[in-house]
Design brief:
The chain has 352 residues and is of the alpha+beta class. It is built from eight helices and ten strands. Strands 1-2-3-8-5-4 form a six-stranded antiparallel barrel. It has a two-stranded antiparallel ribbon with strand order 6-7.
Length: 352
């Protein structure tokens, strides 16, 4: 075995490349991209089910090393200076950026990433949510918080309410005090990324639950189907799982060999058919159960485990792209006063 072959064996597999690092192939169309080959044997090996393009060749690696990065070069905005940002309040500055006319509704500027961490392990998780409100106290998002397996357990702990395996726990009241140490971690972070205007906002602070009355105001604006979904979904609960051997034995094979051009790309012809039950039926059964439960009910009530939380900021960072990765970053850090209009903020420029 030659030296190059030995090197290929030791090299860890790379599945994803940063966009733009490799020059596009002229004239390459989606239909010409090699597709995974699904074999007819009853027990195909794992490599047979893998795309031949999942591991880079030595030629590909040479392209990466011999070409400068073609990642996005930031050119949209003029330099961001201290005179351009609000001098006393980061929430007002956020409102100004959020209302930038370049942030059209179709770009969903309200989309953000919420990060929380479990205690005492410190294990961090993040998920995409929608900003629904911003007031002088902070940023508000709504979701299901009752599941101990999800963000509700991370933020409010696993001991809130009287939940058990069949009933989700209720959200705590805003003024309730956690007597048990370590049951939850109120620290959270929100990140907004607006690529079309080359801007980013990072918010860090404490998460507090809204009152039930506040949550009901937003709940009434949701369409009926979303309200039913709020009752039906035990968010982050495991509906189904399978070990690798089961998937290898039972996953669809010949069916995916027949493809069709769809709106979202190349998809199996029988995409709506399922080879084996994967837990979706349980969710749909719960939806039907909730539809029957609230049949004839005009105003579906707010679930006890569903509602809003407010991220009360301790720091807010405004990031704007500049050439050569020498970005502008200004951070507001709360140094005194009450949260809200009475808060006092120190402003810092950060190194990019």
């Amino acid at each position: 075995m030659d030296h190059e072959s030995q090197s290929d064996i030791r090299r860890p597999k790379k599945l994803i490349f940063a966009p733009g690092d490799i020059p596009p192939t002229p004239g390459l169309k989606a239909s010409t991209i090699p597709q995974p080959q699904f074999q007819d044997q009853d027990e195909p090996t794992t490599p047979d089910l893998r795309s031949a393009t999942s591991t880079p060749t030595s030629t590909t690696e040479t392209q990466i090393l011999s070409n400068p990065s073609r990642a996005h070069q930031f050119t949209t905005n003029p330099p961001l200076t201290i005179s351009q940002i609000h001098n006393t309040n980061p929430l007002h500055q956020f409102h100004t950026w959020f209302r930038d006319p370049r942030l059209v509704a179709s770009s969903a500027p309200e989309t953000c990433t919420l990060a929380t961490a479990s205690m005492p392990s410190g294990r961090v998780s993040a998920r995409v949510v929608y900003l629904k409100e911003l007031d002088e106290r902070g940023w508000v998002v709504y979701s299901n918080w009752g599941s101990r397996e999800g963000k509700g357990g991370q933020v409010f702990g696993t001991g809130n309410g009287e939940g058990n395996d069949d009933t989700l726990a209720a959200m705590p009241e805003p003024d309730s005090i956690q007597q048990e140490i370590g049951v939850g971690n109120k620290w959270g972070a929100l990140t907004f990324c607006w690529l079309n205007v080359e801007r980013q906002v990072r918010v860090e602070g404490l998460l507090e639950p809204l009152s039930r009355e506040e949550s009901e105001l937003y709940w009434r604006t949701r369409e009926r189907g979303s309200q039913i979904g709020g009752w039906a979904s035990w968010q982050s609960r495991v509906l189904w799982d399978a070990d690798p051997e089961m998937l290898t034995e039972r996953q669809r094979r010949k069916s995916v060999a027949v493809l069709q051009e769809g709106v979202a790309g190349i998809v199996p012809v029988d995409i709506e058919e399922t080879d084996i039950e994967d837990g979706r039926a349980l969710l749909e059964a719960r939806v039907k159960e909730m539809e029957a439960r609230f049949e004839g009910v005009k105003d579906i009530p707010l679930p006890p485990f569903w509602g809003g939380v407010r991220l009360v900021p301790e720091s807010v960072e405004f990031w704007q792209g500049r050439r050569s990765r020498l970005h502008d970053r200004f951070r507001y850090v709360r140094v005194g006063g009450e949260h809200g209009e009475g808060a006092r903020w120190r402003v810092q420029r950060l190194s990019p």
